[in-house]
């Protein structure tokens, strides 16, 4: 079996290239052979990209998160567009809206989000979306501006009704579940996975955050822990893990437009 971690902040797990190599090696030993590295901020994308570019199976997304709305950088649009030409950069993001910590103001966040959706559309790439306490605005923006290549609602935190609304609206969205899916009290997530098409499901670690229940005593999560989430998901869906792993792999490769083999 092989697994695809669709969202990991490798640069936040460790800053040192040697330690990052260890993270990737441990992941591969656990069957996690592909990882999308998410930049921590646009300011350190180039450093993390350089650290990881020689590792096979590592892909990248580049964008400005809502937490960076006040400090995206003077030429941030140009920086993103230039970075999209680099090998193995497969998505714009993460971007989106976060009203929990109130970064900047809502209007500024929405403008930042829309600009990156436009960049993704221009370059025919999917977008990775962060949504925290901003579900209505995320939906309203996507309904008008979702890129043709689709979007990933990463570390999904809404409920089954929200997912249904997205699908009923015809949005080309995928729902990515992190380690918090394995928490007993995550009933909204459990209900969601039981009520959405299997071909729209992805899994991620959101490393170093969202540690699966199996590893709750650890300080941070790693891509190597992804199979724990996959096992939990397989049990919920009542399908063999081997069968689910193939479906998740196909879904991941499809949204990122990467060959399966």
Distance between the termini: 13 Å
Residue fraction in strands? 15-25%
Class per helix and strand makeup: alpha/beta
Helix content: 40-55%
Multimeric organization? single chain
As a whole number of angstroms, the C-alpha radius of gyration is 17 Å
Number of strands: 8
* Overall morphology: globular
Give me the strand/helix succession.
EHHEHEHEHEHEHEHEHH
Mean pLDDT, as a whole number? 96
Unreliable residue runs: none
Please outline the major beta sheet. 8 strands, parallel
The total count of helices amounts to: 10
> Widest sheet: strand order?
1-2-3-4-5-6-7-8
Structural account:
This protein is of the alpha/beta class and 261 residues long. The protein is built from 10 helices and 8 strands.
Task: Give the SSE layout.
Elements: E1 3-8, H1 10-13, H2 17-29, E2 32-38, H3 45-52, E3 58-62, H4 76-83, E4 89-98, H5 106-122, E5 127-132, H6 135-145, E6 151-153, H7 160-168, E7 173-177, H8 187-193, E8 201-203, H9 226-237, H10 241-256
């Amino acid at each position: 079996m092989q697994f695809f971690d669709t969202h990991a902040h490798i640069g936040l797990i460790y800053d040192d290239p040697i330690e990052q190599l260890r993270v990737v090696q441990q992941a591969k030993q656990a069957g996690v052979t592909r990882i999308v590295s998410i930049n921590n901020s646009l300011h350190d994308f180039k450093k993390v990209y350089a650290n990881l570019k020689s590792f096979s199976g590592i892909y990248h997304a580049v964008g400005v998160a809502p937490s960076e709305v006040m400090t995206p950088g003077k030429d941030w649009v140009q920086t993103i567009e230039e970075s999209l030409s680099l090998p193995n950069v497969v998505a714009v993001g993460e971007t989106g809206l976060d009203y929990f910590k109130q970064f900047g103001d809502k209007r500024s966040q929405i403008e930042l989000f829309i600009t990156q959706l436009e960049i993704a559309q221009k370059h025919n790439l999917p977008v990775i979306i962060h949504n925290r306490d901003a579900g209505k605005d995320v939906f309203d923006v996507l309904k008008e501006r979702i890129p043709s290549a689709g979007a990933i609602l990463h570390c999904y935190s809404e409920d089954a009704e929200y997912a249904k609304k997205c699908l009923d609206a015809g949005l080309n969205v995928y729902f990515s579940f992190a380690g918090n899916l394995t928490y007993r009290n995550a009933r909204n997530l459990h209900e969601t996975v039981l009520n959405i098409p299997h071909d729209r499901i992805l899994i991620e670690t959101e490393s170093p955050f969202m540690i699966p229940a199996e590893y709750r005593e650890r300080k941070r999560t790693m891509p190597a822990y992804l199979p724990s989430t996959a096992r939990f998901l397989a049990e919920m869906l009542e399908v063999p893990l081997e069968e689910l792993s193939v479906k998740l792999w196909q879904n991941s490769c499809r949204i990122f437009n990467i060959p399966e083999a």
